[in-house]
Amino acid sequence: xxxxxxxxxxxxxxxxxxxxxxxxxxxxxxxxxxxxxxxxxxxxxxxxxxxxxxxxxxxxxxxxxxxxxxxxxxxxxxxxxxxxxxxxxxxxxxxxxxxxxxxxxxxxxxxxxxxxxxxxxxxxxxxxxxxxxxxxxxxxxxxxxxxxxxxxxxxxxxxxxxxxxxxxxxxxxxxxxxxxxxxxxxxxxxxxxxxxxxxxxxxxxxxxxxxxxxxxxxxxxxxxxxxxxxxxxxxxxxxxxxxxxxxxxxxxxxxxxxxxxxxxxxxxxxxxxxxxxxxxxxxxxxxxxxxxxxxxxxxxxxxxxxxxxxxxxxxxxxxxxxxxxxxxx
Length: 329
Ligand SMILES: Nc1ncnc2c1ncn2[C@@H]1O[C@H](COP(=O)(O)OP(=O)(O)OP(=O)(O)O)[C@@H](O)[C@H]1O
Ligand SMILES: [Mg+2]
Description:
The chain contains 13 helices and 10 strands. It is of the alpha/beta class. Helix 3 (about 105-115) crosses helix 4, helix 3 (about 105-115) runs parallel beside helix 6 and helix 4 (about 120-135) packs across helix 6 (about 155-165).
């Protein structure tokens, strides 16, 4: 069953009532829908990590509340049974999780969480294999017995993600999961996340500095600035009005900037075109309408008799090819 997260007036102060007290979150209220994919963005130090560490009870609110399904965490009332339940429900992949692997073998690392749940070893083994498979890692016994420290950084991160998945969370929270990954590893990660959402109905929350990634994955975006929630909305709405985003120190994805410039030059692209597919469709539509209008011009000025039906068809061989290209669109 999918669960959502409801945050009401959340304030977090690190080291409260000390000379080093620091307000990292101030009066945040937000709703994350069950089974949605939410991006949390903002410049360095804006409070993103602090915010998501409340989602699984790693940090407790100084004021306000965090509710995940039927579990609520507030500053004064949190039963430890509720916290344990919350940590099972919400899997949190840390920023640079590969630094936190610790077990002597890959198997032991991924099995660590399920072992805490007191499951039988046969069940644990099944979970470990399924989780490694979900992140496209080898599941042979030879691989399972290898040290996680003998892997590349990207592979280690996948082991860490497998460790979170082996807990079978209903909400998956990823703190900058693609930072430092190469393009292929990123694309694989996105494909895996899409599969997890489709198959398991996971509610997905991720932090990112990459607006193209946000554009490609998120249904909804929350923008943090100075510990406050400054903006929220669908990616296309935020990228259509980039001034607000820019005021938070962020820039829209490069393709959104391209379509804005293209629009100024008369192309039919709209500012909400910001994924490669959307831009390609807009370009094809532009080529199509441009070829239609040049065909109409050629046809009206042509001394040749019109043989086809409809404007411009058959006006010349050259134009016929263009028409064909547009039809093939
Ligand atoms: N353990 C801590 N003790 C005191 N202050 C902290 C602690 N962790 C974070 N902060 C402060 O809280 C603020 C928010 O930090 P946070 O780690 O949530 O930012 P972030 O948006 O995740 O940044 P980044 O993009 O660099 O990861 C910063 O000003 C930071 O210095
Ligand atoms: Mg962070």
